[in-house]
Request: fold
Amino acid sequence: MNFIIFDLEATCWEDRSIKLQNEIIEIGAIKINLAGERVSEFCEFIKPKLNPVLSDFCKQLTKIKQAEVDFADPFDMVIDRFKKWVKLDEPHIFCSWGFYDKKQLILDCALYGLDRNWIEKHISLKHQYERIKNLNRPIGMGGALKLEGFKLEGTHHRAIDDAKNISKIFLANMDKWVID
Reply:
């Protein structure tokens, strides 16, 4: 069994009244085996299809440069490489901090007319963490890192850095996650 700890960054706008579809612009993931060893990592930028020009807000939040997505491959090509990296034919489960990442993957698969059944095996670490720690509500990744005594490393809202930070929380509680 491999645990795929992943995080996504997507197009976004400061003005929430703007009703544009978010699209993934970065996938970051860490593969962890049953022994708790980091097997490998995956990180790629994606060129958005509907709104290829990143908002100033998005660039400021994620620190992703316009050129990084301009020269990236489209979602369908990147997701194909991601699925090969995951090795879908081997036992695995996707893990993210909340349900947003799974939902966004499903939306982008729909946008490109791709199968989305491959992402079904998923757990929200954020919601299980609430139960594990007997919290009154789910907390953000930063709060969970503090609770575990870890520092946030890298750049927050960069998918690969967030995946690395989430993997620290995952490993610290590895024997407590409920895998269906």
